[in-house]
Amino acid sequence: MKWVPSFGFQRRKRELQDEIDAHLQMAIADRVARGESAESARQAAEREFGSIPLVQDVTRDMWGRGWLEQLGRDLRYALRQLRKSPGFTITATTMLTVAICANSTVFSWIDGTMLRPIPGARDMGDLVSLQRGERNFSPTPPFSYLDYRDLREQNHAFAGMLAYHNDWIALTGGAQPERAYIAKVSANFFDVLGIKPMLGRFFLPEEESRAAPNVVLGYSLWKTRYAADPAIVGKSIEIARHPMTVIGVAPEGFVGAAPGLRDDLWVTLDPLGNDVWRMTHRSGGAVWLIVIGRLRPGVSRGQAAQDLDTLMQDIVAAYPDEHLGDNRITLDPMWRSPFGANGYMAATLPILLAFAAVVLLLTCANLATLTLVRFVSRRRELAIRQSLGANRMQLVRQMMLEGAVLSIVAGAVALVLTPWTSKTFAWFFPANAAPLVLSGSLDHKVVIGIAVSSLLAAMLCGALPAWRSSHTPAAEVLKAESASISGGSRNRKLLSGLVVAQIALSLPLLLCSGLFLRTLRNLAAANPGFEQDHVLTASVGLNIAGYSNDQAQLIRHKILDRVSALPGVEVASLTDWIPMTLIQKRNDAYPEGYVPHPHESLLVENAEVGPRYFESLHIPILEGREFTLNDDEKAPSVIIVDQTAARRYWPGQDPLGKNLRVWGHLFTVVGVARNSTHTFVNESPEPMVYISYFQHPGYETIVQVKTEGNPVDLEPAVENAIHGIDPQLPVFDVRSMRESTQMASIFAVLESTLAGMFALIGLILAVTGIYGVVAYRTQMRTHEIGIRMALGASRVDVLRLVLVQGLWLTGIGLALGLAFALGLTRMIVRLLYGIGANDPVTVVSVVMLLGAMSLLACYLPAHRAMRRNPVTAIREL
Amino acid sequence: MSEKDQYKNRVELLQGTLDMLILQTLQWGPQHGYGIVQALRLRSGDVLQVETGSLYPALHRLERQSWVQSEWKQSESKQKARYYRITAKGKKQLASDLGRWERIVEAIGSVMYVKQEESES
Questions:
Q1: pTM of the model
Q2: Would you kindly state where each structural domain of chain A is located, as residue ranges?
């Protein structure tokens, strides 16, 4: 930028020189023509012309300064001013950096998750996520293949519609089986997303519903396991003991269609052709697909939803038995898609961003106070410059530039820090079974965000005081200087307003963080209804490793025997589900003869659990019995329901012996278990049914062990026991129940950590803000206070004089802040647990804390004023 | 007439009249700085001697105000020079300057005549 104006300036300077030369040449030529000698003509012409440098100088003055040159001059002046007060400069820059960085960090998280739900996909805005029936957090996949195909082929609103199912699988064939996350996808999966293969090809339409043992590798799997083999296409690899042919490699960065979750490889929906049942049914276990559509250009989400609803009604009318319950279709943009991580992100991150924005506002208010105080003390300088001819615009521009310089520097530092802070996101997510790929991202959107924050900061902390100061007539300021006792009523009002604003802004931050912290405490203290402390779980990759059903059952029995016999193990059981890990399974269930209401959701959560499961988790069986080893494939189908399910289906009756239809099978209730937490401590209880593991083997095989001592100590022993059966058995996710269930409170941890940090910053800013203003004003009134004391005012009077002023501001700030806060807490009420949004204890303690800190901040300058010697006070100034 | 005498005869240009004089000179056709000086001296019978230290700042100011435009051209004597040309805006300005000038002359004149009459009576 600097080159352009200086280049223009140089050119004009040269032109002026040429113009003067021409003038002289013509004058000489004229004189020579009149008969003078060349030498005397030159001398005369030069004499007549006068001093060339002087002419150049006065002419250049006429050019006026280019705005850039003027800016440069103002900038140098602003830098000089900032250098003169390094304390202010460093404090202000640091404060702004922290505030901008808070914003950019949270925004980078939003950017990395909600705004880039499917990295690599084309025109993300056109993609919508389809959901059938009840809306909730982490719903189960909502569509059967046949329903999906009908919707895909008959709709008028979509340019394309893909389906997928996430799973995991073992990559066999190597020394040790390796777990990989796999997605079974419709053939058009990559097409609809707009992904092009890096190597080879993707799936062909005719491969979708027939056996086609082809696999597409993800970029990172190709790199790590296959050493980035450029000739991988066409080679055969072993997946769960089946040979599959690699047909392509996905481009770098693309990790699948579920926001926040990673796929390592992709196959078609039924690659081996052994899953025909799932491909040809419309209910129960055949409802397994998550569907994403790409809207046709010009079609709105509402229109598309209507189109699909009509189609779905036709499907329901054609196959009523397969479509009990709620079948309404809702569409979500990908940033809040309920599948994957974005549902959770959308509930948490925008609120945190709002908090960060409040911190930025607060910082700006604080800096505006500081700037104003500085400008008031520079009033004399400004007034003199104004009377010397500086116009008001110039002065305003210079003040704004000081704010702008601070903000730009702060923005630049924030830009350097954000790549690091955005990575801290991953710290909040403990190790778990899901392939989470959550991290902040730093792309142009974040950079723009930082620039906008800086600009906002510059406007608020530079322009506001500048605008105020520019309204003071110069003469008045010069005159007022000697008589002024408190910096003029205009500035006093603005300063008071800023202090009130700071208190009013920090109170909601404090209140929200107080509520979040108490929520976190309540969550930690809450009893989930099952034992968390002495339980160890380990996943065994039986299914994914490609064992047959009979082999798998045998291995499971062996595992139970061996693990139960380990010293330190009280009870060992099997399950296919660990509570509070954000994983759920749902199915339609209804008693024999039950007539559902239209659109009534019949979904219940379900889990397959082995004998002594309830004993190992300390969940009491209130009626009837637990499963035993005898509840196997040959025995009559049995089921255990929890209290919520019992109340829902058989209110006021004894559920024992009643029949319940799940997946079309009829089960007899043999027990009622006490309610326990399924996903979140603060969930509203959903009905849960338990099915005997050895009767209907679950998909996952998770060994659950109740230990005598610390469960972590048993980890190697349990793992060895399993490997003792077959060293090739993949064992994953061996960890204590306590660690697993942390997943349920990660968002509470995230919220309370950030809100707590922001509130702390807010408190510091508000308190320093009020301290600064009261101290400054007291200093301005030193003279007056001296006179008052000399006239007989007691020290207490002085103390009161100063304190009352500060307390007024605090009082008004607290009142406004309280109103603001009580409005704001409604936004977070959904995120709270065990505490109301207006919890009086929290409100009172937060108000007291802020009030007390403000009082202290006012007391310090008051105390100093009180102790002054009146004589020196009067002499001062 | 010696050069010294010429200087004595110079009239201090009233502030603002230089602009008007330059614009008027350019009415007769585009001209460079030296040409303007010569034209003014010629027309005023050697009375008006514009100093370069006033002329060039004035020209550059007029150009910035878009009352004149400049371009580099060859003079008749093959000398490359910067020629100034009056613009439509400049013509308007000239008319208004002239009007004001006439009013001032008239006002000054009437003051002087009254004085004369008074002193005569």
A1: 0.76
A2: 3-64, 124-336, 345-524+747-875, 542-729
